[in-house]
Amino acid sequence: MGKFVMKRVLVIGANSYIGKKFQDYVLKKIEAEIKVDMITAADGGWRKLELYEYDTILHLAAIVHKKNKKSLETMYDEVNHNLPVELARVAKESGVRQLIFMSTIAVFGDKESCITKNTMPKPVTYYGKSKLAAENDIIKLRNNNFKISIVRPPMVYGEGCKGNYAKLEKLARFTPIFPEYHNKRSIIHIDRLNECIYDLILTNHEGYVHPQDYNYLDTCSEIVKIRKRLNKKTKLLQGFSPQIKFVVNKFRMVSKLFGDLYYEEEVNERKEVYKYNN
User: What is the per-residue pLDDT across 206-264, written as a single tens digit (0 to 9) for each?
Assistant: First the structure.
């Protein structure tokens, strides 16, 4: 039997929510098969490292929760596009075998209802556009010795998460009355996203991945569920469906709250791996 060799993984984005949670996930494993090193991207410290020592680089550093302002376009492009492309080139030249780039469902825009394997990306925000630009440049670098895995997670939630789900929880706290309008949105718990990343590393995966929880989120039902956990009752208002349906794709905030945005089960070739029970 051959000697077991633990894979070495460098995480770019030590201060990111996913980065911290992934490190915790690996450390808690009884028999972890990978060793994780963490580094921030802000000071460019990764450029001083001997990247050839790593089997996989997991790139998480990005500008995410900023406003979609024209004045921030250059910053989005520099951090979310140029930086990961530079990293990918250096990694390839250094002999790293795999790069996992954390992208986003936002590359498909925010008004697409059902995303299938044939859906073409069409981002509308600077965040989504910068991530897609990075995807397109990074994927060109792949070859038999340098695998590229691009992960496009939907809304991530879990303890300590500051993303859109946290905003939904905040809304639920102060919303005793809510319209009974049902929708479908893909989401993924941070633990299940970490499980996905771990699997990608072990299998040296390449290609596009769209991980999600097995069950879709319904905003109305989730509001009720959150308030129930807080021992608060919710009154659902009926009869507003036509009005909401009329404006859901006209206003971005309404679309984010009530619109459909979900991955079809067949969007991944390996759906049994990337659709998790919740």
Answer: 999 999 998 999 999 999 999 999 999 999 999 989 999 888 878 888 888 899 999 99
For the residues of 217-249, what is the DSSP string, one character each? B-HHHHHHHHHHHTT---EEEPS-HHHHHHHTT
Write out pLDDT tens, residues 160-184: 998 889 999 999 999 999 999 999 9
Question: Per-residue pLDDT for 20 more than 90?
Answer: yes
Model pLDDT for residues 114-123, shown as the tens digit of each residue: 999 899 999 9
Burial call 194-206: b when 16+ CB within 10 Å, e when fewer: bbbbbebbeeebb
C-beta pairs of 214-217 under 8 Å, 24+ apart in sequence: 214/275, 214/276, 214/277, 214/278, 215/278, 216/184, 216/185, 216/186, 216/187, 216/262, 217/155, 217/184, 217/185, 217/186, 217/187
- In sequence order, what are the residues at sequence separation of 6 or more whose Cβ sits closer than 8 angstroms to the Cβ of residue 115? 105, 108, 186, 210, 261, 262, 263, 264, 267
How much is the pTM? 0.92
Q: 24-38, pLDDT tens digit by residue?
A: 999 998 888 999 999
Query: With 80 as the cut, is the pLDDT of residue 3 above it?
Result: no
- Is 180 buried (19+), middle (13-18) or exposed (0-12) by CB count in 10 A? middle
Tokens of 124: 């509308």
Taking Cα atoms as reference points, which of 242, 251, 223 lies closest to residue 110? 251
Residues 58, 12 contacting (CB under 8 angstroms): yes
Residue spans per domain, the chain: 7-158+187-215
Superfamily for 7-158+187-215? Answer: NAD(P)-binding Rossmann-like Domain (3.40.50.720)
Q: Which residues pair with 235 in a beta bridge?
A: 177
Number of other residues whose CB lies within 10 A of the CB of residue 109: 18
